[in-house]
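Q: Study each token:
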Amino acid sequence: MLADKVKLSAKDILEKEFKTGVRGYRQEDVDKFLDMIIKDYETFHQEIEELQQENLQLKKQLEEASKKQPVQSNTTNFDILKRLSNLEKHVFGSKLYDE
């Protein structure tokens, strides 16, 4: 998936040879810069791998959680309101209607 989109690997960067000209760049500076790029590539590759694994785990957890959710019963809003009213009467008694 990702390998199709990325054109360079850390190994490609490491093994790249540049021709030198009369007034070319200092090879030591280029090597240091390429070393930094290689480290970044390796870090990015590792981070992508970890995120892909985490993504798979989360998808599995979501799938399992959706399977565990109970099927809703045929309780209607009227039933809920009736139960709530009975509970209020039981808890508050006549205080609820006196005020």
Summary: Residues 10-98 form one domain. The longest helix spans residues 27-68.
